[in-house]
């Protein structure tokens, strides 16, 4: 199974390079991925004239399985509404058979209107757990913001405000891969039975510790996960090959003394006098 991961396109920015995006799309199409994940910041300001441009640019992706989430830039200026009008729901759950694997994908909007900070929010936790429940060969979580600090980005800012809870939840759900963007530096963290994979900015010169625009190809095969960083039209660099299966002790799933997550459905579906929402 092959996943192409791109993020931080920033259509409308003065540093946006449409030529780099076009090269990346052509290379991704040539690689013939089973799944393409677009991990946020598709536009630069969320304005109404930027979304049509972004949709037109991404229309060149040939893969039939494309999962998108918005980023903090997309949520500016009521851009969260425009995202839904252009690309559909900001949160999604999928079950797909890809490359011979049964894959569960949960994609969540971690942005908040007009804020750079991100948050998944406890109202999503049971919904996420439900999306990963049952048998699956591979579980993939997608959001824009980072769960763990990324080196080479300067002073760390705008990490998920509930990153600890989300990490514990995903570990509890036996998630395999987290795909994110946001910090414009490609990087990978192995942690608690998961691989947290970050893509750089695919089509801007807004770079930090890594000097080039970049995207990732994630291959899952033969009991391994391999991540390849690609510069559009340029170099290829391995971010490593890693085993699919962790020793159970290293996941620390049974060592958590505190965190418990409800499996009773999202908060909005629970009635009661405290919410004023009638039970279904």
Keywords:
280 residues, alpha/beta, Purple Acid Phosphatase, chain A, domain 2, six-stranded mixed beta sheet, 12 strands, 19% helix, 25% strand, disordered C terminus
Describe the model:
- The chain has 280 residues and is of the alpha/beta class.
- It has one domain: Purple Acid Phosphatase, chain A, domain 2 (4-Layer Sandwich).
- The protein has 6 helices and 12 strands.
- The strands form 2 sheets. It has a 6-stranded mixed beta sheet, with no helix packed on it. A 6-stranded mixed beta sheet has the order 4-5-6-7-9-8, with helices on one face.
- Strand 2, helix 2 and strand 3 (66-69) form a beta-alpha-beta unit.
- The chain is globular, with a radius of gyration of 18 Å.
Topology diagram in text:
Elements: E1 2-6, H1 18-31, E2 35-39, H2 50-58, E3 66-69, H3 79-87, E4 92-98, E5 101-107, H4 125-132, E6 138-142, H5 163-172, E7 177-180, E8 187-191, E9 194-198, E10 215-221, E11 224-230, E12 236-243, H6 248-251
Parallel strand pairs: 1-2, 2-3, 5-6, 6-7, 7-9
Antiparallel strand pairs: 1-10, 4-5, 8-9, 10-11, 11-12
């Amino acid at each position: 199974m092959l996943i192409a991961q791109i993020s931080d396109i920033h259509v409308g920015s003065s540093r946006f390079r449409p030529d780099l995006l076009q090269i990346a799309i052509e290379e991704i199409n040539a690689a013939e991925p089973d799944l393409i994940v677009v991990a946020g910041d598709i536009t630069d300001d969320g304005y109404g004239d930027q979304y049509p441009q972004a949709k037109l640019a991404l229309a060149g992706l040939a893969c039939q399985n494309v999962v998108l989430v918005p980023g903090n830039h997309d949520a500016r200026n009521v851009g969260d509404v425009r995202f839904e009008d252009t690309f559909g729901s900001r949160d999604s759950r999928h079950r797909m058979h890809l490359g011979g694997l049964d894959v569960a994908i949960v994609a969540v909007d971690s942005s908040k209107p007009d804020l750079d900070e991100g948050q998944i929010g406890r109202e999503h936790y049971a919904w996420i757990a439900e999306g990963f429940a049952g048998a699956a060969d591979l579980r993939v979580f997608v959001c824009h913001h980072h769960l763990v600090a990324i080196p080479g980005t300067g002073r760390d800012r705008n990490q998920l405000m509930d990153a600890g809870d989300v990490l514990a939840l995903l570990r509890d759900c036996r998630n395999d891969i987290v795909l994110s963007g946001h910090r414009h530096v490609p990087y990978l963290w192995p942690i608690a039975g998961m691989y947290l994979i970050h893509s750089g900015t695919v089509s801007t010169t807004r770079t930090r510790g890594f000097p080039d625009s970049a995207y990732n190809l994630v291959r899952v095969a033969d009991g391994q996960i391999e991540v390849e960083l690609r510069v559009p039209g340029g170099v290829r660099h391995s971010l490593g090959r890693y085993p699919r299966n962790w020793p159970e002790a290293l996941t620390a799933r049974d060592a958590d003394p505190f965190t418990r997550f409800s499996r009773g459905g999202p908060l909005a579906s629970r009635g009661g006098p405290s919410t004023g929402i009638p039970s279904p």
